[in-house]
Design brief:
The structure holds three protein chains of three kinds. By secondary structure, chain A is mainly α. Chain A is 76% helix and 0% strand. Chain A has eleven helices and no strands. In chain A, helix 1 packs across helix 8, helix 2 crosses helix 5 and helix 6 runs antiparallel to helix 7. Chain A is globular, with a radius of gyration of 20 Å. In chain A, 47% of the residues are buried. Helices cover 39% and strands 20% of the residues of chain B. In chain B, helix 2 runs antiparallel to helix 10. Chain B is globular and about 75 Å long. Chain B starts with a helix and ends with a strand. In chain C, helix 3 packs parallel to helix 5 and helix 4 runs antiparallel to helix 5. The radius of gyration of chain C is 17 Å and the shape is globular. The mean pLDDT of chain C is 90. Classes of the chains: A mainly alpha, B alpha/beta, C alpha/beta. Chains in contact: A-B, A-C. At the A-C interface, helix 6 and helix 7 of A face helix 2, strand 7, helix 3 and helix 5 of C.
Amino acid sequence: MSGLLSAAEWGVVALSLKVSVVAVILTLPPAYFLAWLLARRRFPGRILLDALVHLPLVLPPVVTGWLLLLAFGRSGPVGAWLDSVLGVTLVFRWTGAALAAAVMALPLMVRAMRLSIEAVDRRLVDAARTLGARPWRAFLTITLPLSAPGIAAGAMLGFARSLGEFGATITFASNIAGETRTLPLAIYTGLQVPGAEAQVARLSLISVALSIAALVISELLVRRSGGSRAHVL
Amino acid sequence: MQRAFSLVSRRLLLALLPALLASCQGGSSPPAAAKGPIVLAASSLQEALTEVAAAWKDHGHAAPVLSFAATSALARQVQQGAPADLFFSADEEWMDRLDHAGLVRSGTRGDVIGNQLVLIGPKGTAAHGLADLGDGRLSLADPAAVPAGKYAKAALESLGQWDAVAAKVAPAENVRAALALVERGEAPLGIVYATDALASDKVQVVATLPASSHPPIRYAVAVLTASQHPDAAGFRQFLQSAEAARIFEKHGFGAIK
Amino acid sequence: MFFEIELEHRIGERTIALQFQSQARLTALVGPSGAGKTTVLNCIAGLVTPDSGRIAVNGVVLHDRSHRIDLSPELRRAGYVFQDGRLFPHLRVMANLAYGERLAPAGARWIESAEVTELLGIRHLLQRMPGTLSGGEARRVAIGRALLSAPRFLLLDEPFGSLDPARAEELLQLVERIRDSLDIPILLVSHDRSEVERLAGEVVTLQ
């Protein structure tokens, strides 16, 4: 197996996995919160929030990367604060690649989770309330467990999206070997150099395999969550 | 039912009539030749070439269509059969590649202008040289493929500085992207063309790299074999005219004697 | 005075208006289909806020618009047996039964789970998942779950609907037993005249 890729190439795969896993874990809580807000709450500006959440899905990734640069770059409002207060820089670092991947994965995760929260019958929550459960407890014991397959499906979908993230990453975090050169960027870099076709082919194969695996798992989880579990008996 | 159908088709015809008439007016829509030749040019030529093309247009020709990107990216497009008329490269190597592949029309290749490399920092920087890089990154165009990056690496190698900074390089997609990183302060130092530093008011030159430290920077232009535009040869000649030379020099490019 | 209900609520095109007081241990709420009987139960349970009115059970005011009193559902301690059961599909029968029991204030519990499972004949179902239960079994578990939540009163919404006659009879006898032996007012919604005649001490009609 070690003969399949060179050490450097395995490094690229490892970096990609690290960036994607971190991106998904960081995005899970805000994504679920947004999904719950949009599924269960009515408030002024709800449609606007929905549109904002979906923005990374429809904007050209380069634009998203540029917006991230404006906000989180060293001279941007958030970036400057992160740099001076926490000593954290995102540009040129794998953390920046993770942020870019997280932002691009967010809309997909919110969508998947929102669907599964909406599928949880509110009447079950009502029943829990009459049995003495406060809203928070009803959420934790009824809504959350019943929407869990949707959480898992959203996470896998976000993971697959993160693995393939390119435009926002290269614009925001740049293309630094060992730090931000994830699979897609490594393939792109390989294309720039004449004679690297074999390497490009190997990395592309891995990329396809990982993405298919993530998508298949996500689909299976969606099927499970769409079953009778979330309905009233 | 039939009456209704003919009613609908009549309405449809009435609705489409203006569009049909408009398409018949062939005179108002510009024929293919009214757009100028397609020029693929290195990103460092952006401001200068745009002005040269405008001058060409002022002489009564159709405005050339300019596409700026890293020379390596453009060369790849030509190799894949992109329908372009002229190729304006930032180094000889990429032009050689296309030439050997038979993609360049013989007799049309020539060197037009030269350039210099400079070390830059964001405006107001206190840096004096590479030693001030510290933990930061050195912003370059990708040294593996893009001319500006290749020149920079060659220069640093001949100056004995490459090994020290190799791990700190931030390879950008093209020289303008490298410039932008320094403009934004993301990278404390960068190496770009002197013309790029001139084009930006957010950076300042920290040092000029000696011309002897790298192969001479020569911008080559040629008409591509795939070209079919009647103006291609004319514009190619114009690029070496005195008027164009003045414009290039104004933007900081060196003339080829 | 067990039930003191006075409410008005607009639902879609219709307006529901109801006013009654009942001293009976089991009061039946009858009326044509679609009259809003379930909505009345939802108002009493606190799941729906009526446009206006006053709701008091056993002397405790649950809702009074004019005095700005509106207890949230978890504080009203209504033992609500829904028409559609509403067992939690991801919990076993045992956990379903215990759901309300665990949340009941310690001193307020007036019946043990062993007693309830005995009364309802559901001991053999404890480890089952709700999805595997028959209609009648699910209904009994729902009643058990409501009883175990230490309710101050019971709301039963068409508890005998869509059950075969043998099961329905069992359940009827069970409700009679609850009515007679447990010290707890019951409001029963039903459209079946014979059930009502048999069980109810007082009948309220909703137009």
